[in-house]
């Protein structure tokens, strides 16, 4: 049985990543394709509000795509019983091209015996010495693996015993891992390797639907479905795919897609917002049966309340990692109705950013404190990038901060000038 295709948004998922993955997986299902939405991590409050409003259960979290030893283990390889005879052991080695044989006592793994040990026993039959039993030859293996271990940790040579909670499961080798079925994944709302769920090198990326720059080092083995469009939200593209397929958008899905458009465009205020996003939102609102402005403000307010977040959580809110020109940095963002509370605790936030920067050896950690009402951003940061920021925004950095009126969009107004300034 083939596994279902996973549809996922980026790490530190925002409303677009959660809702577009749910909506795209639903479209695939309606087209008869076995797809399920997953998510890279916890939802923010805005997203939780949207899912709750439209009575949709959040999709399960998947922490990584690594092929696990348990996915590759050959369970048909039976262990020798501790009471087995030397003849049983010889038969086992005749049937299995392995230098070691696993030995179990009532299912519990007790150790291995070596193929070479049987040769010693054969010599004894010639010299007439007393023969050993399997239980006398058992010893601990040099290495064995748990089902939850990463497949990529299996050495290139040799065969290894796999156990689960002390019980013998089977044997595994590097070739078994290479032959294991890879998880098929469709990425929505991201394409940069650093933003994909860990272990994507073990996964088979079969599609990308996105509205960001093409960055990072994503590469695939075969040709894949790719759809990039410069619109304000992935949900706008996904809505278009429903239309293209001639499939009616379910009411709850329309609500989710609408929520994503409102979120990504900050209720059409962001410069990333296009006419198509506005038109799409109006259509979706009609299907979902909500008033765009009223619902939109309610949803943004639910997300804009950061009063119960710790400084560390604020510093890491909606964080994305970027690597370019030999520098690695992160940009987090909080969108609020009023920035004054946050700016009052700027020193505490800078501290949290610096801790995060130092812990991961980032060159810098940025935080956009964006006012939805004023349509502006206070950009604060930790790390030695004052010159880059000055160059990027043609503004003097004062106390690790620049004020950027009219700036709301990370992808359109923050990332490009920083990347240009880094070159
Ligand atoms: Mn998006």
Written account of the structure:
With 423 residues, this protein is an alpha/beta fold. The protein has three domains: 5-65 and 183-304, Alpha-Beta Complex (inorganic pyrophosphatase (n-terminal core)), CATH 3.90.1640; 69-179, CBS-domain, CATH 3.10.580; 311-422, Diaminopimelate Epimerase, Chain A, domain 1. The protein has 16 helices and 16 strands. It has a five-stranded parallel sheet with strand order 2-1-9-10-11. Strands 12-13-14-15-16 form a five-stranded mixed sheet. A three-stranded mixed sheet has the order 3-4-5. The longest helix is centred in the first third of the chain and has 16 residues, at 15-30. The radius of gyration is 28 Å and the shape is elongated. The protein starts with a strand and ends with a helix. The mean pLDDT is 95. Bound molecules: manganese (II) ion (MN). The site of manganese (II) ion (MN) has 6 residues, from loops.
The biggest beta sheet is recorded as: 5 strands, parallel
Q: What is the molecular shape?
A: elongated
Helix content: 25-40%
Sequence of strands across the biggest β-sheet? 2-1-9-10-11
**CATH evolutionary superfamily of the largest domain:** inorganic pyrophosphatase (n-terminal core)
Q: Quote the beta fraction.
A: 15-25%
Find the structural class using helix and strand composition.
alpha/beta
Compute the number of strand runs: 16
CATH top level label of the largest domain: Alpha Beta
Mean pLDDT: 95
Bound molecules: manganese (II) ion
Helix count, DSSP H or I runs of 4 or more residues: 16
Query: What is Rg?
Result: 28 Å
Terminal CA distance reads 49 Å
- For this structure, the CATH topology of the largest domain is inorganic pyrophosphatase (n-terminal core)
Count of individual domains: 3
CATH architecture of the largest domain: Alpha-Beta Complex
Q: Unreliable runs, pLDDT <50, ≥5 residues?
A: none
